[in-house]
Amino acid sequence: MITKIYRVKGTFVMGDEFHKFVKEYKATCEADVEQKIYERFGSKHGITRNQIKISEISEIAPEEVLDPIVKEIL
């Protein structure tokens, strides 16, 4: 399988506030990226899937990566 790099944008609820996020992940498809978002935000912030709203998932080129950890993996 070919792995691609995706940038995910969205919001999540923390207390009474909405917080924006932009994350980059290496994955084989958009569905895998979506699952990673739900798992990691749920684990880190103790929130449920309905408290996370993904507004955009887009494939990006390796040159466009901003996340230093993803850059290191490449």
UniProtKB/TrEMBL annotation:
GO terms for cellular component: ribonucleoprotein complex; ribosome. InterPro entries: Ribosomal_eL20, Ribosomal_eL20_dom. It holds the Pfam family Ribosomal_L18A. Residues 4-58 form the Large ribosomal subunit protein eL20 domain. Transmembrane segments: none annotated. Keywords: Ribonucleoprotein, Ribosomal protein, RNA-binding, rRNA-binding. One of its GO terms (molecular function) is large ribosomal subunit rRNA binding. One of its GO terms (biological process) is translation. Belongs to the eukaryotic ribosomal protein eL20 family. Part of the 50S ribosomal subunit. Binds 23S rRNA. This is Large ribosomal subunit protein eL20. The lineage of its organism: Archaea, Methanobacteriati, Methanobacteriota, Methanomada group, Methanobacteria.
